[in-house]
TrEMBL record:
InterPro entries linked: EDEM1/2/3, Glyco_hydro_47
Entry keyword annotation includes Calcium: yes
Key words, A-Z: Calcium, Metal-binding, Signal
Protein name: Alpha-1,2-Mannosidase
Amino acid sequence: MLLGKRWASLLIFMLIFSTFYSQISSSKSDPYAAKKKRMSQKVRQMFYHAYDNYMTYAFPHDELKPLTKSFTNSLSELGNLKLERLPQEYNGSALTLIESLSSLAILGNNTEFEKGVLWLSENLTFDVDARINLFECNIRVLGGLVSAHILATDSTNRLTKGTYSNQLLVLAEELGRRFLPAFDTPTGLPYAWINLKHGVMENEITETSTSGCGSLILEMGALSHLTGDPRFESAALRALRKLWSMRSSLNLVGTTLDVETGEWIEFSSGIGAGVDSFYEYLVKAHILFGRDEFWRMFQPAYTAVQKYFRHGPWYHEADMRTGRATYWQLTSLQAFWPGLQVLVGDITAANSSHREFFYVWQKFGVIPERYLLDHQMLHPTEKYYPLRPELAESTFYLYQATKDPWYLQVGESIVDSINLHTRVEGGFASIRDVTTMELEDHQHSFFLAETCKYLYLLFDDSFLVNRNYVFTTEGHPLPILSSWHERLPEAYIPSNWTSVKSEERRKRASAMSQRICPATSPNCRNDHEQLESVCHIPDTRADYRCLTDDDCGVDSMSCRRRSCSMAGYCGLWLS
Ligand code: DMJ
């Protein structure tokens, strides 16, 4: 008995010591480990507070009204997606559930992920007389389903054996087929609205946005790769090519256009509403499909943005024909731009505009929808903050790229503000007016698909370790597979990469810098293995500082050589 007690004390001592020791050693390798753990748990709780309340008070409708603990079928603005085997009067598409699946997978909640997958498999149908917005339905519903299908079938055995036989892909394919009539225009540019049952309605409006035509390629391209039906990718690609052909001589695009005539309607544009994801999808399509064509569009488009819209760290709007500034406004949606800049290696520029967005966040407590830079005041009618993700998204990318603890601090401050100002008993509510913090009865689905996801990944990126993903504009991960890649141009592949790449440097590469495995490489062991890019050569210094071009490596995504800027940073500097 005494011996038993002694053994027990010894065991307890060893346990405490080993926990203490492992904490010391993990904090030795990462001094911010404890903070990250605490913050990731906090974000996890935020996600479940939003998700559980949705499931309790709103599911299977589209979105939660957290103040009244009721629901809104917000897709009915986008169109009603009715559910099979439910009373006829019921409308709803379980939008927030579809949008939550990839976040549940990232949080490692296989039980809830499986429940959601099986429920949708049995209940969701698109055979409904409903007018939907093509762009929104594509990024939220099609993107959510395609991503969840991939997560359901990856090698992690997320689902109980035998329960899944591609039901989500079947649904996604059906939805994709219902999108196709929208592209049947003289220009190939899709209508903004389509009836899922009857196709394009009579007298349908012909005006759409640049994002509406230029942000379909990730989801529809992935759908083609998964189903073997090329029609989805072809339709999206044709629209994107047409859109690009409509650029001005300055390589600028407008914000709205007519799909029948192919004429611009709104010539002023920027990097925010109506245009944002067009730029995002050019670079992400290049990463996902390895097609040089996307980079050839992105490179001049990015250069034009930096030349005509940028004013120091701020971005204003300009007329696509003249390049002259039109509106000097900061919008909440623009805050995704630093994240995009990280993807192309433009870290210094990303950091400087991220700081300005965060400055505005701190000034108001959250980021307002629109701020008039020239008058230094809020837009009179756009004072709201609907729980948008863009600043958190850029913060996540910048932390991945730099490991600068400053971004953890930013993330913590975002988490604290959201909890302080928007958390209510029934979920998280949007802010109607950032000057009074008056709330609005709406918890958008992107709060679960994006805001919580990026905040969580900022503090816990274990989901990304040894995996390569591109996140769609709605935050749904798509894996980068060599089997989806076209051959990279020879010029992009340096011949001496093997000698430069050392084991030690390899280990240092973050998840974000582990990229494509070009199909041309003999080192790609098999189609589905996600390896670090064979062309990737890290910069000599981990902080990207340089004296000459020789200190810079080769970008892991585009396989393009990085160069040393005048400020002494390696990047994909565009001339
Ligand atoms: C999301 O639906 C997507 O990020 C989209 O690209 C733009 N905005 C919202 C969130 O703010």
